[in-house]
Every structure is written in structure tokens, then in C-alpha cells.
Amino acid sequence: MSKQKKTATKIAGGTKTAKKKPGTATAGTTKLARLEALLRRPEGATLDQISTSIGWQAHSVRGAMSGTLKKKQGLTITSDKAEDGRRIYRIAG
Q: Do the Cβ atoms of 90 and 37 come closer than 8 Å?
């Protein structure tokens, strides 16, 4: 048995390329971008809101806020306690 070589299919004007699948992340719609957008809202967001919106567990959300947003991007994240005892996180500024 011999191996067959894979070749690109030639079409008018170039080679055939794979099309992007629907539902894949594009610029501005990554989970970190969605996290930042939630924190930039005037009312902020609770940990439960962020977790359900992004689909991450609570410890992953806190890690992303601490590591990526605070340390790597240099953003200031504030935390206030609401009347019901939940923490509301916001990006200051």
C-alpha cells in the first residue's frame, strides 16, 4: 500500500481553503472579552452572573480577574458587597 499525497484543490483565483465554522470565537467575543464587558457595566456583575454567562466555574472567574485582567492587563477591579451579601465586581475607571 502506498500513501497518497494530499493536494489542495485548485479553483479559479487560488486554492480552496477551509471556511470558518459558525459559532467560533471572533475578535471581541472571547470569554475574556465577555468577562471584561460584564465588569465594565455600570451596575457591575456578581460572580453567579459571570459564571452562568461565560460558562466557567467560580474559581476560574476569580483566577481570570486576578491573573489576566489585573496582573497582565493592569486593570483595577473593585469589589463591593450588596445588601443581600453578594459581591459585585466592577472595573474601576
A: no
Q: Using one digit for the tens of pLDDT, what is the confidence trace for 66-90?
A: 999 999 999 999 999 999 999 999 9
Q: In the predicted model, is pLDDT for residue 21 greater than 60?
A: no
User: Domains of the chain: which residue ranges?
Assistant: 30-91
**Residue range 26-47: average pLDDT?**
91
Q: Looking at the domain 30-91, which fold is it?
A: Arc Repressor Mutant, subunit A (1.10.10)
Distance (Å, rounded) from C-alpha 60 to C-alpha 78? 18
**In the 3-class helix/strand/coil scheme, how is 20-83 assigned residue by residue?**
CCCCCCCCCCCHHHHHHHHHHCCCCEEHHHHHHHHCCCHHHHHHHHHHHHHHHCCCCEEEEECC
